[in-house]
Amino acid sequence: MGSTSGNSGEVRVIQLEENNIEGTVYRVEKGTILQFRLASSLHGCQVTLQTNHPVTTGVQFCRSKYYKVNWILDRQNEETYTDLTASISGNFQYRFTKDGVDAGSGYFIVDPVLRVGSANTVLKLDSIACQTHLSKSLGDFATWKIRLEVAYRSGYNMVHFTPIQELGGSNSSYSIANQNALNPIFGSVTFDQVGKLVEEMRTEWEMLSICDLVLNHTANETPWLKTNPESCYNLENSPHLRPAYILECIFDQFSNDISHGNYVSRGLPAAIKTEEHLSIAKTILHETVPQFKLEEMYMVNVDETVKEFKQKLQSLTPRTNGQEEDESKLVIVQDKLHRRLKSTVDLDAASSVYFYKWHDEDINVAIDRALGRLRNKLDQLNDGAKHVFSSHLSSAIDNILAGARYERLQNDGPLLTEVSDENPLIHRYFLKVGMPDREDLAAEEFLAYEENCRFVLAHNGWVMNDDPLRNFAESDSNVYLRRELIPWSDSCKLRFGEKPSDCPFLWNTMRKYVETTASIFAGVRLDNCHSTPIHVAEYFLDVARNVKPDLYVVAELFTNSDWKDNIFVNRLGITSLIREAMSAWDSHEEGRLVFRYGGIPVGAFHQEKVRPMTPCIAHALFMDVTHDNPSPIEKRSVYDALPTAALVSMASCATGSNRGLDELIPHHIHVVHEKRFYTNFVSTKGKTGNGLVNDSTGIISARRSLNNLHSKLGAAGFTEVYVDQMETDIVAVTRHNPRTHERIVLVAYTVFGYPDQHFRRSGGIKDLIFEGELNEVVLEAQLRPIDSTQGTYPRPGDFVEHPIFLNGLVDFTCDVRENISIDKSQFVSLEGNAVKFINFQPGSIVIFRILPPSAIVTALQSLRSLLAPESVKKVTDSLSLRDLNKVLYRCEEEEREDTGYGAYDIPGFGKFVYCGLQGINSVMMSGIRTGNDLGHPVCDNLRGGNWLMDYIYGRLLKDENTKPLGNFLQQCFKNVAEFPRYLVPTYFDDVLRIVCFACFESAFSKMSKFVQISSSFTQSLALGSVQCCGISKSGPLPHLSPCLAEPKPLTLQSDNGLVQDCVTLAAGLTHFSTGYMRNWGRDTFISVPGLLLVTGRFQDARYHILSYASVLRHGLVPNLLDRGTNSRFNCRDATWFWLESIKKYVTTVPQGETLLKDRVSRMWPNDFGESVLDHSVEQCLEDVMQEALQKHFEGISFRERNAGLKIDAHMSDEGFNVTAGVNLETGLYT
């Protein structure tokens, strides 16, 4: 548990995309700032953003009320975003329009803040340990607390109560007869008294309580079914169910006939025992049911319809084009009341198709032809309707017999035999309120259409593999007709309609029920969530949150689709989805579930406070067993109760169990049939019984240790999980604290099936190798038989159920040792950094606490000191922009020229685009960091060795200017190398991310004020100046005039002699980055305004302008520069971009007009002469500009020197001829 709540300072950026992402889950904590930004496709458009999360504090949430979120124009009006603080818990939608048209939407969920104890301490969601109780089994309210004390003593901090309301005749925990009255079994008690007890549990035991909401059905015995049958699906408000009801009556009569021996002569006895019996039943059904002609409920009365059509035609004028139109638009219009032969067709459409005549044809001939055509079409449509119904009937018969097979033939079923009223062949889908269960078939069909049909109600149930987003009881479904429902015959399906006004009584009744429940409990479990109409669940969860704003909502879904699960999570704001370890078929799968639902991987990257919102899976309430399913003792073995409990407890999510497993109750505590009560807790030691349990009962003491550990790990930030399948049945789970690097390691020996009775493992388990200090054995435990003479793994003997109390197995005891040194362990020993399993038997668990090695602690402290903001700033602030070009960027060709290094190459991935830090940073930003992609080849490379780290600092040590940063990174990486290899990627990324950010800030600080105060988007563009401007010894600018006014560049030694120490603009990376291909006039002067002038790099712009001026020839600055001595002047517009850059320099730079007087050493003072390299010809820039303009006015015409393959293998001969000039009539450049 922690002491604070909220997520102050955390920012999640949601980029608005033009799509609907209803199947993507975004979860945040309270206090998180949601920052919405526009995707590139939305820039320049009128975008309006709305959300139903209140934009001001103190406003109550209303799902249908949306608020416009105002955009913020970020720094110089360059970037648009908006901030929204997630201040209330629940689920919220955002939506936006683009130029007035709906463009996209999504959801975000804000987790509730749960509090326990008198100090209202926060209980983190990942610390929850929940135990389910069947409320009816708590018995008299006076005994509740002593019975619930078992959960408290077992270390649970949350209790899940099944409905506490009055139940129906079946006694099912989920068949509620009165939503607003308590179960009479509790005695004389009020909702207020229950609420008081729940509050006592919260404050005294630090234990929260949640309770089920059952919104989808009500018990058959519900009193208001007699007064308000419209609250359920019935044959009046849902007449599409009438054929299904009549068909059920036929099937029920068939079942009754079997029970009376009416088909013995056909070989079908009352006792169905063989597949042959089912085959005979199928044959008889296919013979008898068609005789009732139920397909007529979907068909047209041909004679009546043709007669009506004839009357219609006699008042119409036929078409005269003499051509029949497409008759496919003629379809059966289903009779809404589903009466026999009362469906119709559109006669207007029929007349437009069939009623025409030739020029001189008699009108009666046209009418007869139309009638004949329609009759044929109706026969065709009826045949189609009959065929469809036959398909439904076949499915219905198959489904009935499949159910009979399970119940009467399969070994995993109840193995019923005699067909009788108590055990009929079919289960009823419909309840008749206040009427006989069975009447003759004629009376049943009559009932389906008369007034009392509103009292024929549809049962609720479960449909295998159905679409959970569809209501299977509505008219677009044939579930009841096809007998695809697994019915709950004790409950009727509620029919809410679309809104409260559709059924006011039902909505009001359920609203009061929900408000009462929410006022008592900290949360709700939405029962039958996948079948509850989603709009209904939305409405009532909103009602509940209005009562309890920080409502904890859990649900169990059976959609078989993560995407559909996410839709429910988003629409309903489900906090935790129930997941079950019993779904695992072996220990490997169980370990996979622990990892999937249980946290982030060990060594995950440290995330920044401001980061993109990333999709996540729904938070889990991971249970070893739920109350709906058989006990693991039945399905696996009694010895697996402890290992599976331990594995589940190690998941970094909410966890839970069902009351009874800890007490070793070896059977399913059935939600319907169970009538006994839970036991009471007593503090006395020794053997218990007769309704009492204590610490030594079952695995209670071990469970307490596991639950306490689980809660502490969640509160202390052990968020990272690693699962290792050590052997087929042995699983190790590590919980890792990413801040302290302390680890808690569980090793569990699962027992999914019973070993040999006398089995004993004699070693052979691989060692557990660890790094660090094994501080203690937190827990070791094993469930064993009390009577060792029965062997090491005897199966439980004959179990006798107590007539009053829910009792468990008593022939087993759980040995528990806590917080011991490893030399006191009975399971393991220690040799160096290896744990030896000396006596680790099936069903055993052992948990270690491992502290990081002192070297790691020292390295971590050192690294944190080095990465302190002031330390990083000090080393990066000394870097110039040209140094930062080397530090951050440099393509492979540039790097080879300078240091001899190439780009770093990752096996299985390839080379980084840049040799500098941004090369790897771009890859890390592409999803590795935010998506925790620890399996990426880059991470494999970092875990494999220090090569990448050596490369990064090694290249920087070769340059005196970058050497200080190289030394700094060498120190950082030296510390990183001390960590276990699985932690190297995350700490390498910390260094990379922090240093890159500092380098970016250093770059911006050396640029113009405009860049410094601009948005991140503009600053990212400004980095193009650092990316493309660098020193290139093989592609320098021509030497500037020695008479140039200060400042002027220094010189550097290169392989070709001295070159100027000034940056050049690469025309493009990587092909135009070095040598003669680096500098191009057009590319340079298109870029100078944005990359050099806007960013404040005025001297770099000056040097480029003057250098190109020095090689002016024929009135043109070169296209390809190539040091000026081998320039090509084949680009007519480069000169004009050069002139435009001069103009912008003069108007942008303070005292920029001085540029015009700067001296230029002319290399080509004579267009057709030899080059002059001794700076003997000098001019002012303004004179060079005048020459360029004069040459254009006079007209330019020449052929490139050395024209041909020597200078361009791809140019046509004509292309070497260069002409340019000014049209003297228009003044336009040609």
Automatic annotation (TrEMBL):
Alphabetized CDD domains for the sequence: AmyAc_Glg_debranch_2
Q: Which InterPro entries match?
A: 6-hairpin_glycosidase_sf, AGL/Gdb1, AGL_central, AGL_euk_N, AGL_glucanoTrfase, GDE_C, GH
Pfam families named among the record's database cross-references: GDE_C, hDGE_amylase, hGDE_central, hGDE_N
Q: Which residues form the Glycogen debranching enzyme central domain?
A: 698-956
All copies of domain Glycogen debranching enzyme glucanotransferase, residue ranges:
123-552
Classification via SUPFAM superfamilies:
(Trans)glycosidases, Six-hairpin glycosidases
Domain Glycogen debranching enzyme C-terminal positions: 1060-1219
What positions does the domain Eukaryotic glycogen debranching enzyme N-terminal occupy?
34-116
Q: What is this protein called?
A: Glycogen debranching enzyme
The species this protein belongs to is Orchesella dallaii
